[in-house]
Amino acid sequence: MSEQQRQSEQQGRAGRRSGQGERHVVVVGAGMAGVQTAVALREQGFTGAVTVLGAEPHQPYDRPPLSKAVLLGKAEGSAFDIDFEALGIGLRLGREVTGVRPADHELDTAEGPVAYDVLVLATGAEPLRLPGAEGVPGVHLLRTLDDAARLRPVLAAQHDIVVVGAGWIGAEFATAAREAGCAVTVVEAAGRPLAGALPEEVAAPMAAWYADSGAVLRLHARVERVEPGAVVLTDGTRLPAGAVVVGIGARPATAWLAGSGIELGAHREVVADAHLRASAPDVYAVGDCASFPSGRYGERLLVHHWDNALQGPRTVAADIIGEAPSPYDPVPYFWSEQFGRFVQYAGHHTPADELVWRGDPGGMAWSVCWLRDGALAAVLAVGRPRDLAQGRKLIEAGTRLDPVSAADPSVPLKKAAL
Fold first, then answer.
1. What is the pLDDT of residue 9?
2. Per-residue pLDDT averaged across 373-401, rounded?
3. What secondary structure, in 3-state letters, does the chain show?
4. Residue 67: what pLDDT?
5. Nearest partner of 414 among 376, 381, 380, judged by Cα
6. Burial letters 214-230, b for 16+ CB under 10 A, else e
7. Is the pLDDT score of 370 beyond 90?
8. Bridge partners, residue 97, by sequence
9. In angstroms, rounded to a whole number, what is the distance separating the alpha carbons of residues 63 and 99?
10. pLDDT at position 2 over 70
11. Whole-angstrom distance, CA of residue 122 vs CA of residue 112
């Protein structure tokens, strides 16, 4: 620890004990949510000490390029273009936090305790591991810069690759692997791709995208075990695999909060309020590791996407500096690039919502709208970015749509408003 870092910790502790002086905000997590929280604090005029703790040794970086340009060797990395030193933001990288004691306003790390006046939890999510595959050579995840670096030579060597899971990350990796010239088989336990995100009638047409790209998609297929050089399915099928990439989902990275008294939800996420405050005093949670109550949708949302990690920090920063922000209630948004298609989604739908098609799902450009009591609740756009842009604004405004006009892809979505 440098002398400057030591003084910063001492000042933070002294300020808390005396009730005087500037507060010290410590952010745990150096991904998008953590970095943007630190930046938003400075942009909104916070003058106290700001420290970001990151478990990885790398300069903070953006994750979406990992499954695209970085993976294919078109870029070495995706570091944020932020001058942390100029902003007065302290970075401590390669420093894993192992616990927190809210009553003491201290974090526990291998290098010793770190005091805080305000704590922001931004630890993101961690990928689920395939049971029984730990330690098997050639099994990979794709979440970090190091993961992408390990997979780049695999793609360059054009190995036969088995991808476990046909979700967003599985589809994006399969796309990159096919672009690199690899033979790709995707194994999915459900009967359709994106089973956890989209209903059957919407996701089923996407299965053809795999074959169109030259990838093999095996549905209703479960992995029995992974061996060096092969994946064995429960039906006895043996798939040759020079490498196996696991993309079966992610969960909030909150195991280190066990015993802290901070409330966690059903998915192990930090339960935050409408201003992204956690249950402990002076503690906030933002990004993939936190859920928040949505007045717009009448339920608690856990959003594992880039845009949520970008928007939430502004609410956290405003609340920390006492600006009394509006409740955090964004229209969730994400995108995915897969098999030559740009897929975008905004909003939040349920099985009870009315589904309206715009265009032929067998084509390259089509959309789906979900209506709730006549109002647009969500929109999925494949190759129709204008539908997404207009739909997002309509969702924000709670606009009701005429289902007949909305179903006509030649009618701009905003013209279907009642």
1. 43
2. 98
3. CCHHHHHHHHHHHHHHHHCCCCCEEEEECCCHHHHHHHHHHHHCCCCCEEEEEECCCCCCECCHHHHCCCCCCCCCCCECCCCHHHHCEEEEECCCEEEEECCCCEEEECCCCEECCEEEECCCEEECCCCCCCCCCCEECCCCHHHHHHHHHHHHCCCCEEEECCCHHHHHHHHHHHHCCCCEEEECCCCCCCCCCCCHHHHHHHHHHHHHHCCEEECCCCEEEEECCEEEECCCCEEECCEEEECCCEEECCHHHCCCCCCECCCCCEECCCCCECCCCCEEECHHHEEEEECCCCEEEECCCHHHHHHHHHHHHHHHCCCCCCCCCCCCEEEEEECCEEEEEEECCCCCCEEEEECCCCCCCEEEEEEECCEEEEEEEECCHHHHHHHHHHHHHCCEECHHHHCCCCCCHHHHEC
4. 85
5. 376
6. ebebbbebebeebeebb
7. yes
8. 109
9. 25
10. no
11. 20
* Structure confidence by residue, pLDDT tens digits, 113-128: 999 999 999 999 999 9
> Closest by alpha carbon to 252, among 276, 224, 287?
287
| Residue 286 buriedness (CB in 10 A; 0-12 / 13-18 / 19+) | buried
What is the pLDDT of the chain when averaged over all its residues?
93
**Pairing assessment for the beta strands 118-121 and 24-28 based on DSSP bridges:** parallel
Which is nearest to 217 in space by CA: 206, 228, 225? 206
pLDDT over 90 at 291, yes or no:
yes
pLDDT digits (tens, 9 = 90+) for 196-240: 899 999 999 999 999 999 999 999 999 999 999 999 999 999 999
| pLDDT at res. 5 | 44
Query: With helix as H, strand as E and coil as C, how does 186-212 read?
Result: EECCCCCCCCCCCCHHHHHHHHHHHHH
What is the distance between the alpha carbons of residues 315 and 322, in angstroms, rounded to a whole number?
11
Confirm if 78 and 61 have CB atoms less than 8 A apart: yes
d(CA 59, CA 76): 13
pLDDT digits (tens, 9 = 90+) for 140-167: 999 999 999 999 999 999 889 999 999 9
